[in-house]
Amino acid sequence: METRDKKIKEVQGRAWLFGDDIDTDVILPGKYLVLTDPNELAKHALEGLVSDFSRKISKGDIIVAGKNFGCGSSREHAPLALKYAGVGAVVARSFSRIFFRNAINIGLPVVVSKEARDVIKEGERLSIDLEGGFIIREDGSRLVVGKYPEFLLEILKDGGLLQNLKRRFGKEAKI
Asked: Which of the four CATH numbers 3.30.1490.20, 3.20.19.10, 1.10.600.10, 3.30.450.40 does domain 11-169 have?
């Protein structure tokens, strides 16, 4: 296995606040599951909660939510729609386990923070250091978050699970 010094850049963007129990049908309504182009999926991300979300978000913006983000079905379409809409990371009090893993697998950072939703303000500029395990707020204060295990950081550094496997086992690997 090759060694790399590649670092995950800090995720930086404005905070978009959401509540508890944001399910995959809200993240991406089921009627769009027939779409295969991730850029088309992105146009419909969170459309039931924020009109024209995909047009309003800036690349790197950060979703900050309450508990149980990504509950519902196990479809990978939901985190894919968020990633291609430009979401740089999702911070939540807790995640559905399958959403958490699907997000990592496609290269979308997800961060557990018990306090972020209670203290971060809508539109506040944030910076997330995934390797250091903290969120830097606009006022310079920091929120400590759980650090990723090294194997998950490696997947994120590579841009997702598929890219990680190709790097580890060769581009010609039949994955």
From this structure: 3.20.19.10
